[in-house]
Design brief:
seven-stranded antiparallel β-sheet; 206 residues; alpha+beta; binds flavin mononucleotide; globular; 13 strands
């Protein structure tokens, strides 16, 4: 089978992508509006970019039903700051509770029962329950695709501070079992990182 994305709907193209870009890490992003309202939402089009300086990206799309930009993007555009919180299994349900398209003035910390904790270098709060949080400053926002439903943006941020729970930090490395991060698959399905295997890689040829 071949599918030309130009001949299928953006919804069908979306289903192919979320069913094959797997598993996806989740950036649980906390922001603050210019009026001071807290916002919290998950984004699984998320990854690291480079480490000097540490830089990450995530992609808040336009809302599929009306093409409007999401509160997270609007807040980052107006303040230039955000936190990426890493999701562990013990608060995954609360994370999903923050993924409803609430009105901008609704505080998803209150909705989910998660705890806002003051950051050090930026104004938005981090999620206290997260074992790892990155305080980030905006590098740039890159618009991608249509200016309507299905289009989106890449938000690139510079990590200005890492918060790491001592429990998950073993001599410079993160302990995967103790972090117990959750990945997103398609639809309502999530994954753990319990079933792992090793392949040794040579960085340089012999
Ligand atoms: C696990 C998970 C991952 C998600 N990933 C994305 C994503 O990568 N991009 C996106 O635009 N929306 C994503 N969503 C949907 C947003 O979280 C949802 O639209 C949210 O209400 C946006 O909130 P905001 O308007 O407060 O920014 C995801 C939802 C879940 C549950």
């Amino acid at each position: 089978m071949i599918i030309d994305p130009e001949n299928s709907s953006f919804q069908d193209n979306h289903k192919i992508m979320i069913g094959s870009i797997l598993p996806r890490p989740i950036a649980f992003v906390s922001t603050q509006s210019k009026d001071g309202n807290y916002n919290l939402a998950p984004f699984s089009y998320f990854n690291g970019i480079c480490s000097n300086p540490p830089s990450i990206m995530f992609a808040p799309g336009r809302r599929g039903y009306d093409g409007k930009t999401k509160d997270t993007l609007n807040n980052i555009e107006s303040t230039g700051e955000f936190v990426v919180n890493i999701v562990s299994e013990d608060f995954a349900e609360q994370m999903v509770a923050c993924a409803t398209d609430f009105e901008p003035e609704i505080n998803e910390f209150t909705v989910s029962g998660l705890t806002p904790e003051t950051c050090i270098k930026i104004s938005p709060p981090r999620v206290q329950e997260a074992r790892i949080s990155y305080e980030c400053k905006l590098n740039q926002i890159v618009p991608v695709g249509n200016e309507g439903p299905g289009g989106g943006f890449v938000v690139i941020g510079t990590v200005v501070l890492f918060h790491i729970d001592d429990e998950v930090y073993d001599d410079g490395r993160i302990n995967l079992d103790k972090l117990n991060p959750v990945g997103r698959l398609a639809g309502h399905t999530y994954s753990r990182t319990k079933d792992t295997f090793e392949i040794i890689r040579k960085i340089k040829p012999d």
